[in-house]
Every structure is written in C-alpha cells, then in structure tokens.
TrEMBL record:
GO function terms (MF aspect): phosphoribosylglycinamide formyltransferase activity
PROSITE patterns: GART (PS00373)
Binding of N(1)-(5-phospho-beta-D-ribosyl)glycinamide, residues: 12-14
The name this protein goes by in its record: Phosphoribosylglycinamide formyltransferase
Listed PANTHER family: PHOSPHORIBOSYLGLYCINAMIDE FORMYLTRANSFERASE (PTHR43369)
Keyword annotations from UniProtKB, A to Z: Purine biosynthesis, Transferase
Biological classification of the source: Bacteria, Bacillati, Bacillota, Bacilli, Bacillales
Chain residues that bind (6R)-10-formyltetrahydrofolate: 65, 90-93, 107
C-alpha cells in the first residue's frame, strides 16, 4: 500500500472523509502523516483521534518557505510518502516541495476551475451570481489553483442559495469524490507499474 500525506489548515472534514474511507477499506492507502500550518486547527484533533502522526508548524518560526518546506520534505522522505493530498491547505506550495514531488501533489477546490480560484471560492461564486459552481480536483503546480484538472463535478446554485447551503452541497460532493479519486490514482499507479514490470 502506498503512503500518503495530507496537508490541511482548518476543520479537516475532507481529512476525516479520507480517514473514514481508509477505515472502511474503500481506499487502500497508509495515512502516514498530517501536515498542518495552523497550531489551533481542529484537523489536528481529528488526526489524534485517528492516531495519525502529525507535523504542525508555524511559518513565522522559519526564515522563509524554503526552510519549512525542506523540513517537510525530510519528514515525507523519512516516511516514504508517495503522494501529497492537499485538503484545505491554505498556503501556496513552493518550489522545494514541487520539485521533490512533481506530478504527485493533488488539491481539491470548491469551484469549477478555472472559475473562482484562490480564497473564498464559494463567496466568489455567490457574489458573481453564477448559476453553477462545483468541485475540482487537480494536480498542483506553482500557480494558485492552476494545475491540470483530474475531475470536475458541477453543483447548481439556486435562486435562494445561501453560503451555508452551497457549502453543504459542495462538501457533500467533496467527501465522496476525494477518496474515490485517490483510490483511482493510487490503483492506476499500480496498474502502470505492473504493466512496466511485464514489459521488462
Ligand atoms: C474544502 O472546501 C476544500 O475544497 C478547500 O478547503 C476546504 C477545506 O475544508 N480547499 P475542510 O477543512 O476539509 O473541512
């Protein structure tokens, strides 16, 4: 089974959905590490409950992004992490992590990218009076929510939609979609490796 690390900054409902999918054996992965940049975040409590190792850091304690990302890379290598899953991680990933994990970092975003990238995508969609929003899972590159899209799922925004109701609909999709896409990516990787092994 592949080792994965989840990066999160907040409540961690997506983190929880992934933990639950692993426990229900719907997702074959080892959750090796939670990386969290917010010492008070509720996701840390969730990781403690699930007995998952956690690295919590405060960016202000480091001179720059390269410094904290180097420390994270060391931890990830130590735990032989193969895939990084961003789940509400509110920082732009820098070149230190990107170069080590090229093509192996994915993110979930609460809009139909390229629409409404960055912070408060739900508020942005409502303010724009959009008829549709949704969820995008994509590979991470150096931009803000710009990497190649893996999957997008639409959500209709109704006339009387509130921030709470839209967030609820989006998160309901996220919690199903993220574990299932992870499972697909992890098993597809195995299929490719088996294919290579047969060819050699
Ligand atoms: C999710 O809506 C995700 O799409 C976005 O941040 C939110 C994180 O929520 N990137 P949670 O911490 O998983 O509850």
């Amino acid at each position: 089974m592949k080792n994965i690390a989840i990066f999160a900054s907040g409540s961690g409902s997506n983190f929880q959905a992934i933990v639950d999918a692993v426990q229900a054996k719907q997702l074959s992965a080892n959750l090796s590490l939670l990386v969290c940049d917010q010492p008070g975040a509720y996701v840390i409590e969730r990781a403690r409950e699930a007995e998952i190792s956690t690295f919590v850091f405060n960016a202000k304690d480091y001179p720059n992004k390269e410094a904290y990302e180097s420390e994270i890379v060391m931890l990830l290598k130590n735990k032989q992490v193969e895939l990084i899953v961003l789940a509400g991680y509110m920082r732009l990933v820098g070149s230190t992590l990107l170069s080590e994990y090229e093509g192996r970092i994915i993110n979930i975003h609460p809009s139909l990218l390229p629409d409404f990238p960055g912070k408060d995508a739900i508020g942005q969609a409502l303010a724009a009076h959009a008829k549709w929003s949704g969820v995008t899972i994509h590979f991470v590159d150096e931009g803000m929510d710009t990497g190649p899209v893996i999957v997008r799922e639409r959500v209709r925004i109704e006339e009387n939609e509130t921030r709470e109701s839209l967030q609820w609909k989006i998160q309901e999709i996220e919690h199903k979609l993220y574990p299932s896409i992870l499972q697909m990516l992890l098993t597809k990787g195995d299929a490719l490796q088996n294919e290579k092994a047969r060819a050699n």
